Amino acid sequence: MSTTETASRTGEAPDTETDTAPRSDTDRVVIFDTTLRDGEQSPGASMTLEEKLQVAEVLDEMGVDIIEAGFPIASNGDFEAVSEIAKRTRNAVVCGLARAGVKDIDRAAEALGHARRPRIHTFISTSPVHMKYKLQMEPEAVLEAVTASVRHARKYTDDVEWSAEDATRTEHDFLCRCCEAAIAAGATTINIPDTVGYAVPEEFFELIRMLRERVPGAEDVVWSTHCHNDLGLAVANSLAGVRAGARQVECTINGMGERAGNAALEEIVMAINTRNDALPWHTGIDTRRIMRASKLVSAVSAFPVQYNKAIVGKNAFAHESGIHQDGMLKHTQTYEIMRPEDVGLTESSLVMGKHSGRHAFRKKLEELGYALGENAFEDAFQRFKDLADKKKHVFDEDIEALVDDEVATADDRVKVVALTVIAGTGAPQKATVTLDIDGRHETREATGDGPVDATFNAIKAMVPHEARLPLYQVSAVTEGTDAQAEVMVRLEEAGKTVTGRAADTDTLVASARAYVSALNKLMVKRERGTPEALAAG
Ligand code: KIV
Ligand code: ZN
User: Fold this and answer.
1) Residue 8: CA count within 13 A, CB half-sphere
2) Minimum CA distance residue for ligand 1 atom 4
3) Is 302 left (phi over 0), alpha (psi -120 to 50) or beta?
4) What is the pTM of this model?
5) CA–CA distance, 287 with 329 (Å, rounded to integer)
6) SS3 letters for 152-221?
């Protein structure tokens, strides 16, 4: 009996390492990650080029089949990101999005120029409401655009995906004609988005089944799902689509995406792995890298993961009630259907103290999945030593926060050198901040409504800006009063959104550094003149 069969009867976690059940190609579900395109369209989410490269690397390492790296015509920033990711990605197919026009497709092809395995993803709306109000096009003109766009994309690559935006609100006969036209023109993947998150699972199952049955040439292409989560049904709809024969699922880390987001990659993959008796397919994802990807995406987008989020939430494997704890102590399978280590959640281990040396620190970084260059390593080691001086116990999470900080701020023009704050019940609160701006030290003093406001005012006096602060959030990296505070800030100026993140045992220092980190990104965006990305469904 295979491990999976055993698991299906007992509800215990299958052993992914020893599961040797034969896996057929027809049951392989291709994972198409769109965190860097649809995910980045989440209101307020915005990543720098460096952050996108970091995310793409983690996605590639975890076994994502296709990385949708951006929408090249939308902005120079998107173009650059797709182009750099295309150059660097070793395993995954790299995909660029394009509307159904020659300019969009040419720009996507240009950005993908250096990709080992490029894919052009072109789309057009097919529902009556989108055609009439958004496109202001007649259905026959849309049909012609489908053929023309796919044909044009095929001039650049054999790997062309076509999407029917708002497919779930499209008339079936017309959707069939569009899919047929796309296949005839050379599309190799046909994607059926539930753009507005309106479908329910039975209906979505039926839609995919109907298309596979009625569309000529359906058997020659891969059918794909792209479900939004407006009714909380994105994962259920995607799995229903796979049950109906779709073999590509479009999804994002932490379920990021437009409005309520997209189907969450980690939920799709872990549902398939854990309930393989009911969902008998497989993916190429190394699930042990899920937590790392989730934390990285949350950090760089300043989108906190909800505590009770499935798979990656802080509480997903926590057992609080006495009855549950008692059960867990007797046997973990009483309340655990997955093993935390299978999603990369390791027991928080005591790392080392101030006497630990370079060798041990390097080994710990390797274990946590970091590969730093020599200079970055030296800087991180120095900061670890400083932290170990202030904090008795240094945990894995502390090291992760420290290194993520180091990587994020390595090229910053402005750095926090010193901060002194007068806080407490006696007003006014006052902050004195020294910044290093392009190698020159400058100091300012300011008052404010509280110490954080005073600190930010002092910084603003040296780095003037008109940005709003829609998000300022503090959380503890570990437990205890000596824990590092992790601060996330989001700034918005003239339609540009940037985020900053920093950790320190002193909440005010972390706040100042997070704010300065966001300002550094704002300066880069101003210089590049990057307009906010053009949104696509
Ligand atoms: O939701 C949607 O329809 C999209 C398409 C561009 C694939 O994101
Ligand atoms: Zn979408």
Assistant:
1) 14
2) 537
3) left
4) 0.84
5) 25
6) HHHCCCCCEEEEEECHHHCCHHHHHHHHHHHHHHCCCEEEEEECCCCCCHHHHHHHHHHHHHHCCCHHHC
Which atom of ligand 1 sits closest to the CA of residue 34? 8
Ligand 1 atom nearest to CA at 163? 7
Kindly give the number of the ligand 1 atom that is closest to the alpha carbon of 228. Answer: 1
Pocket of ligand 1 (CB under 6 A): 38, 123, 163, 165, 191, 193, 195, 226, 228, 536-537
Q: Right CATH number for 27-301 from 3.30.420.140, 3.20.20.70, 3.30.420.40, 3.40.50.1360?
A: 3.20.20.70
At residue 296, φ and ψ (nearest 5 deg) are: -65, -45
| Ligand nearest to the CA of residue 261, numbered in listed order | 2
Q: Which residue has the tokens 């602060």?
A: 469
Q: Which residues contact 358 (CB under 8 A, 6 or more apart)?
A: 381
Nearest ligand atom owner, CA of 126: 1
On the question of a cis peptide bond just before residue 531, with omega within 30 degrees of 0, the verdict is: no
Whole-number Å distance between alpha carbons of 352 and 364: 9
> By the 8 A CB rule, do 140 and 105 touch?
no
Looking at residue 318, its pLDDT comes to 77
Non-local (6+) Cβ contacts of 10 within 8 A are 333
Closest CA to 302 of 442, 437, 157, 475: 475
For the stretch 231-243, what's the b/e string if a residue is b when 16 or more beta carbons lie within 10 angstroms of its beta carbon? eebbbbbbbbbbb
Q: What is the pLDDT of residues 385-426, one digit of tens each?
A: 888 888 777 888 888 888 877 777 778 899 999 999 999 887
Q: Ligand 1, residues 71, 165, 170: which to mutate, most atoms within 8 A of Cβ?
A: 165
Q: What spacing in Å lies between the alpha carbon of 198 and ligand 1's midpoint?
A: 13
**333-365 confidence digits (pLDDT tens):** 777 889 999 999 876 555 667 778 888 888 888
Please give the distance, rounded to the nearest whole angstrom, from the Cα atom of residue 124 to the centre of ligand 1: 9
> Which sequence spans correspond to the domains of the chain?
27-301, 317-343, 344-408, 414-526
Distance 534 CA to ligand 2 centre (A): 13
Question: Which residue's CA is minimally distant from atom 8 of ligand 1?
Answer: 537
Q: What is the pLDDT of residues 67-104, one digit of tens each?
A: 999 999 999 989 999 999 999 999 999 999 999 999 99
Continuous segment of H or E residues that includes residue 108 = helix 102-111
Which ligand minimizes its atom distance to the CA of 161?
A: 1
| Minimum CA distance residue for ligand 1 atom 2 | 537
Task: Tell me, in angstroms, the distance from the centre of ligand 2 to residue 132's CA.
Answer: 20
Q: How many whole angstroms from 267 Cα to the centroid of ligand 1?
A: 20
Ligand 1 mean position, distance from CA 300 (Å): 23
The number of beta carbons lying within 10 Å of the beta carbon of residue 422 is: 15
Q: Domain 414-526 carries which CATH code?
A: 3.30.160.270
Phi, psi of 418 (to 5 degrees): -150, 155
Distance (angstroms) between ligand 2 centre and the Cα of 264 equals: 12
